[in-house]
Amino acid sequence: MTEKEISTEEKILEAASKVFTEKGFAGTRTRDIAEEAGINLALLNYYYRSKEKLFEQVMKVKILLLFGQILPIITNEKTTLEEKIDLATDKYIDILSKNPNLPLFVISEIQKKNSELTSVIPIKRVFQNSAIMRQIKEKQPHFNPLHFLITFLGMTVFPFVAKPVLRSFELIQEDDFQQFINERRKLIPIWIKTLLELKIES
């Protein structure tokens, strides 16, 4: 594949991601994507024969973006639990700051009955056997490690999901949101590490 072809395909995927996120699958026409990418409809159809195929590819990219960059961190046998928390927090904040609509977009697709996206990354198998699950269990042997992972995801992901609500009620302004997120970048590791150090009995 030539450099020009790669560039065109990337442009299509970026345009499709933007339009699907704004309009949803049902509200998007392939013509909208072609216009956003600055190409003609025939060229788009050359790369992707249907809207369904293009949407599937966009979703695979988004799933890999949301989970693929985190998995090497949580499965690393050489880093401590504390280091994993620091690294995962930084990585998630970076990803979500650049892609604030990513969580809702991915969650809405995964919930669909016929979604095949759960097969893109074997989340269950990887998480169950990951170093971080074992390390959390060693810290808190009486509790399911998922409690701590869900708490971590809530702390990192939920502010981006809640952003429209926060803005609607004028609890935070657009210009202040990134500063708020940068503060959470420092606070989340402290909160999670504190929870893991607490003496909790079943």
TrEMBL record:
Q: Domain of life here?
A: Bacteria
**Is the Ribosomal protein keyword given for this protein?**
no
Q: Which spans are transmembrane here?
A: 143-162
Q: Which residues bind DNA?
A: 29-48
UniProt keyword annotations, A-Z: DNA-binding, Membrane, Transmembrane, Transmembrane helix
Q: Which residues form the HTH tetR-type domain?
A: 6-66
Designated name of the protein = HTH tetR-type domain-containing protein
